[in-house]
Amino acid sequence: MPINRMTKFRCKELLYDYASGSLDSLRRQQVKEFLAEQDDLQEELKRLQEAIKYTGSLKKITISQPYHQVLLQEFEGEGSLYYIKKAGVNLAKYGALAATCVLLIMYFPSEKVMQYFQRNPDEVVLAEVKTTDELSQIPTAMHEDSDLVQDVVEAIDPTFDDSEQVSNAKVLARDAEKEEEVDLKAKLAEQEEELKKAAEAEAKEPVEPVVEKKKDPAHAGILFRAFLKMDNYNVVADAIEEKLRELGAEKGGSVPIGWEKPNGNRYFHFKISDANFEVFKTYLNTIKQIKIESYAHPRAMPEGTKRMILEVQK
Fold first, then answer.
1. Which residue of 88, 220, 266, 307 lies most exposed, with the fewest beta carbons within 10 A?
2. Per residue, what are the HEC states of 99-136?
3. pLDDT value, residue 286
């Protein structure tokens, strides 16, 4: 099985396996050769080896038998204390619940509740009212229902006759109803007139034409392409791959960014934001002045995103 070409990113991922001796011979040799040219990765490997050595030394720490016994006693004491605390919490919780139930039973008005449910719904209770005032002092507002008032008055004094007062009360009530009806009709007519005027004014206002917004042609099916020929193309391709990772680029197809084609060329098919696309173009021009061409493509990118294919050739 062929081994993929080593990059700085891959080498950094394999450092732990290299330090712990988990790599096969071919991959280990490839990492070793790559590390010879990378000073920063060599420093990171040293730190990693020291960390592995330190963690391995922790396994050799032993505890004397007396101190081991002391620790066991401490753990056992803490375990029994935990269950005692838990029992105390449960006792307090259930005790509070029992106290609440007792108070509810003692002060709950059970007799009144029972009387309410045992009452006869068809039974009407009348209270006896004693008065020293004259019966003619009954407020006029009580005469709105003349039959009820007359029954009550006759029950108190059969000789009393207030037909004149009842008649006056009826006249006053009818007049008040007529005034309220007139006021209501006037308000409804006024509101209807205001709505009519508002509708007429709205109909006179010019209607703005609806203009359909056209999509920016820069984001509608555009593919950017460029080719870069270099002698040290692998070194340049690795640097471009690292730069695209920094700018947050994502692969635009099925193959990863920086894929090595069968002919050895490096293939970069990626999606990137508009702002970072401009940064990437500036970065490419620092390597070599190249021409980036755009082509119409049926695949459209979302707003604010561009798609590009760059091939670094031998």
1. 88
2. HHHHHHHHHCCHHHHHHHHHCCCCCCCCCCCCCCCCHH
3. 92
User: Helix-strand-coil percent breakdown of the chain, rounded to 5?
Assistant: 60, 10, 30
pTM comes to 0.33
In angstroms, the CA 123 to CA 115 distance is 13
Joined tokens for residue 146: 């003349």
CA distances from 95 to 84, 126, 280, 283, 304 (A): 16, 48, 72, 75, 65
- Model confidence at 210, in pLDDT bands (50, 70, 90)? very low
d(CA 312, CA 236): 8
Residue whose pair of structure tokens reads 């979302």 in the numeric block? 302
What is the per-residue pLDDT for 219?
46
62-114 pLDDT tens trace: 777 777 777 777 777 666 666 677 777 888 888 888 888 878 877 777 777 67
Question: What are the backbone dihedrals phi and psi of residue 304, each rounded to the nearest 5 degrees, phi first?
Answer: 85, 10
C-alpha–C-alpha distance, residues 50 and 66, integer Å: 33
Taking each helix axis from N to C end, the angle separating 163-204 and 146-156, rounded to the nearest 10 degrees, works out to: 160
- Phi, psi dihedral angles at 298 (to 5 degrees): -65, -20
* DSSP state, residue 6: P
In whole angstroms, give the CA distance from residue 8 to residue 14: 10
Considering only CA atoms, give the Rg of the chain: 48
Distance CA(237)–CA(243), nearest Å, equals 10
